[in-house]
């Protein structure tokens, strides 16, 4: 069975999507816009005396250098900000991979964000949160205690996963959306796509397990901001925008969120290079 939406040109793609699409000229524009939204949300909450809670990805990552520069140049305090990272790879014992592993999300955030922001502006370490395979209940409880998530940022995987919430057609949409932070096995499709995109194709050394926040935590954020920019995202964005909601393609279950946007580049909107 073929699906007509995979052949939609840019005009058709943007015509009647099931969720709001924002098309930008290139990757840099997408990342700058994401950084600006992060900065402005924190700034507005600081001025209102409110805390800021973000769910943060390591993929996309291009927003972080822009965000760091804005924070440092404009002296934005992150003291009342929580960054809850979406996920982390696990070793075969289902423990976090070492921080010095090239795929470690802990290591990436430390190198790219936390050590680059002026010490007087950075949030305390306990507000830099990762899902913990030893305590999967911690993040749902923390989010409830903090009063919810302001914005969940993220990308979309090749089988429609957001964070590592992998497709599971055995579940109903209601069952899927009820899933919270947990440890799971990474699917062959995701391991392959991530090996190609992030690890030079070294499939045999790709981790087999991960810990991820649930689709529940993402779906209950006040805003969801997704960004796509890889060549295979051409198909992903078309199914996300026009496919039926399905646990076979988890991002489709977020189509009816009250404040969601999917930002893509002209490259992804095009059908050919």
Automatic annotation (TrEMBL):
Q: Which PROSITE patterns match?
A: GLC_GALNAC_ISOMERASE
- Cited InterPro entries: GlcN6P_deaminase-like, Glucosamine6P_isomerase_CS, NagB/RpiA_transferase-like
* Single Gene Ontology MF annotation: glucosamine-6-phosphate deaminase activity
Family matches, as SUPFAM superfamilies: NagB/RpiA/CoA transferase-like
Q: Which GO terms describe its biological process?
A: N-acetylglucosamine metabolic process
Please identify the protein, giving its name as recorded: Glucosamine-6-phosphate deaminase
